[in-house]
Amino acid sequence: MSITIYHNPACGTSRNTLALIRNSGAEPEVIEYLKTPPSKERLQQLLAGMGLGARDLLGQKGTPYDELGLADPKWTDDELLDFVVQHPILMNRPVVVTPLGAKLCRPSEAVLELLANPQLGAFSKEDGEAVVNDKGQRV
Known about the structure:
This protein is α+β, with helices and mostly antiparallel strands.
């Protein structure tokens, strides 16, 4: 199964999502989008696949969101995507794409809906919250 994760290793949610993918026995294509930002066209494809608008993809914490005035409703989806291309840190993460669909995986366990393979064992998030038990079942 082909799995791609748009990942930021500095983000706990992104790290937990990647770990859940690997706990299913899969090794995804990891795109560190701050190093290799997606094109505007790719962002449009991802949004279409997730059924989201550009505003839904914007992260606020630790980004220039406020400085750029992106809360202003005057910005079109097209303009917002231009901002994401210019400032990839604006992209909320992680975004995961599998043959089962595409999803902004917040919280990280949302990725379980996109994985064909079951979890191979217990999994707890970095903060200790149990997500999967030792039988591979979601708790």
